[in-house]
Amino acid sequence: MKIVKIGVIGIGNMGSSYVEMLDKGQIKGAMLTAVCSSNEGRIAWVETHTQGDVKIFKDEETFFNESGVDAVIIATPHYSHPELAKKAFAKGKHVIIEKPAGVYTKNVLEMNAAAKSSGKVFSIMYNQRANPLYQKVRDLVQSGQVGDLKRTNLIYTAPYRPQSYYDSSKWRATWEGEGGGVLINQAVHQLDILQWTTGVMPKSIRASSSLGKYHDIEVEDDVTAFIEYENGATGVFIASTGEAPGTHRFEIVGDRGKIVVEDEKLVFHQLAQSEREFNATYTGGFGMPESQKIEIPVVSENDNHKIIIQNWVEAILKDSPLLSPGEEGVNALEISNAIYLSSWLNESVHLPVDANLYYEKLQEKINTSTFQKKHVTNTTLDVKGTH
Amino acid sequence: MKIVKIGVIGIGNMGSSYVEMLDKGQIKGAMLTAVCSSNEGRIAWVETHTQGDVKIFKDEETFFNESGVDAVIIATPHYSHPELAKKAFAKGKHVIIEKPAGVYTKNVLEMNAAAKSSGKVFSIMYNQRANPLYQKVRDLVQSGQVGDLKRTNLIYTAPYRPQSYYDSSKWRATWEGEGGGVLINQAVHQLDILQWTTGVMPKSIRASSSLGKYHDIEVEDDVTAFIEYENGATGVFIASTGEAPGTHRFEIVGDRGKIVVEDEKLVFHQLAQSEREFNATYTGGFGMPESQKIEIPVVSENDNHKIIIQNWVEAILKDSPLLSPGEEGVNALEISNAIYLSSWLNESVHLPVDANLYYEKLQEKINTSTFQKKHVTNTTLDVKGTH
Questions:
Q1: What pLDDT is attached to residue B382?
Q2: Whole-Å CA distances, B299 to A9, A73, A343, B35
Q3: Can you give the pTM of this predicted structure?
Q4: Which of A9, A57, A369, B372 has a CA 20 to 30 Å removed from the CA of A234?
């Protein structure tokens, strides 16, 4: 295979951007040959916005059977990612899915098993893994320069959303349509970055989430979670779409240093010796280990989506390693599911969550929902500059 | 009265600094005329380090009855503050106490009642209230420029302490001697600032505290607390003495702006309109209210202790208002007691805490303690540059 023939399923905010990216030839070694959408308006948009020979399919079965694509980008609403990915693997297609991996781990684990047995290349759009900023953070932690983990602190109130965002589609911010709010949608990248940079998953989570606190929605738009790690380290994760201007700050503390990322700037405080050694040997009462503050310049460009797609295409063509393996999509979802479950049960939840219990509780939310959206505008939003 | 005759009770780290401050004439309208301590070594220190005519008392009864002082500075270990203050008020003395107000609210409330009925001037060493930085923060909130409170976030891991600090005195960091760790000692200023700047007390607290996590002590040296306010706002408070270099960052978010104080720098993000109004009226999907980032220069000098003492002396001489009324000392203690109680009970605790329940639980800690300090150095530490 010299050129990967790609089909895009789902032409919403993100799918449209992938259609343009591929049609404009921005991905080397790949071409857009098909799209699949049941939305007439979006099909018309594809017809007027693409130059290449793009076949249009209105149902998934025909798309998978007749499109002849090698690989599919799944950019449909969250719930459908695992089912569509499983279908794609069954047809021998390579797959990249939009985030989140799904809404509950039960079928995401099935998707991972299907990916494995298919042998196809499977990636997930955790575009922040392409960000040099977080790659550097991960390097610092994984190389041992931060030392043993003591504390993580991630405040992500930056993704402000006004009511009109939630009113743009019927499925948005409903238990049935999206399966959650800020956690499942905006903050899922940060949950991935939290576990990917540190290399550890939380042991348990105790969380509080507020439903429709700042918006007329039935899901959470404000969350605070307390995290405990296996080694005794603790963490706090805060996410909200109701604050302006919000904060985006990530702190990782170890016994050999501290990382602070705020407003895309990376600062590393490097200790001259382990704080644990200093503590045991220093006799002066007041005092602390010497440290130097290192501002690490990192250039972040806003083409991380493109990098992830390109990386996936290269893995298909050359068997090169993936930046964002699809199987790892379950990690952020585990954390997000644990935060929900803890809020719903009002107790600490151990990870991995009970996949069946989570699924049942989510079905309860869906089945007992009485929420009606008052004003749906059915707008496709331009995602430029957002994650 | 033209000159306030002052006696200092307790010549430890803080008491020694007040003795020097007064003896060197750094407080206008006041003079040091007596000290009270039962520690021979500290008495010898006073004799060699003071120039003025300073009477020395070894027991409190004689000190209160015979010293002839108008006012007392109480700088003894925490537990004794309420009892000594009550004795001082009974003898008609003006009082300033070191922080914390006490260890449990039961007797602190009694102290407040005694202060009120005495009619004497009562202050507490919340020296950070003299810091122009926090005065400005308070002004911004109290003047309505931040708007309705949404979230507070206070990370105070700056007060690093090595084991040798805890080994400097037998009473330090024990339930019996100090009644707690980082909360009751190092972080009490921040708890005061949290409620004083925002003007609101938490409604409830859910907390986790780790005992002797980073040090060989029986009390907590690492705490994370989740706060809920009456209006639905939430907050997180983190304190630790086990991180180097630590963080000192305070964020206050309202519907009209956001304050961030970090490393003694104050930034105010001021919105052009209320986020609540923007949310209700904006139709663009993605977008947020306009804001401007204002860096507010504030000069913080390290003479806040002196300012508080001077302010108290002026209140005695001229009936001028107190920056830090003693009766308000109970507020930070309420928050700290709630954090302990929540950790001990492993549940949410409403404020004000049940004063009797807290007292009983603390007695349990003291009575069941089996901890023995391995290495006590009996060192008086120089507190310059600390709070």
A1: 64
A2: 58, 55, 43, 34
A3: 0.95
A4: B372
- Token pair for residue A258? 């501290």
Tens of pLDDT along B189-239? 999 999 999 999 999 999 999 999 999 999 999 999 999 999 999 999 999
Cα separation of B346 and B344, whole Å?
6
Inspect the interface and report whether the beta carbons of B163 and A279 lie closer than 8 Å: yes
Domains and CATH numbers, chain B: 4-126+303-327 (3.40.50.720)
Question: Would you state the pLDDT for residue A322?
Answer: 98
Give B286 to chain A, closest Cα distance, Å.
6
Answer whether B381 sits within 8 Å of A275, measured CB to CB.
Answer: no
pLDDT higher than 60, residue B322: yes
Nearest CA in chain B to A383: B286
Task: Determine whether the interchain pair A245/B291 forms a contact, defined as Cβ–Cβ distance below 8 Å.
Answer: yes
Distance from CA of B224 to the nearest CA of A (A): 8
Residues of B in contact with A290 (CB under 8 A): none
Using 70 as the pLDDT threshold, list the residues of chain A that sit under it.
Answer: 382-387
Contacts 24+ apart (CB under 8 A), A99-102: A99/A124, A99/A125, A99/A126, A99/A188, A99/A189, A99/A192, A99/A329, A99/A332, A100/A184, A100/A185, A100/A188, A100/A329, A100/A332, A100/A333, A100/A336, A101/A326, A101/A329, A101/A330, A101/A332, A101/A333, A102/A78, A102/A329, A102/A333
Q: What is the pLDDT of residues A249-280, one digit of tens each?
A: 999 999 999 999 998 899 999 999 999 999 99
The whole-angstrom distance between A15's CA and the closest CA on chain B is 17
Residues of A in contact with B374 (CB under 8 A): none
Output the CA torsion B200→B82→B348→A203 (10° steps): 110
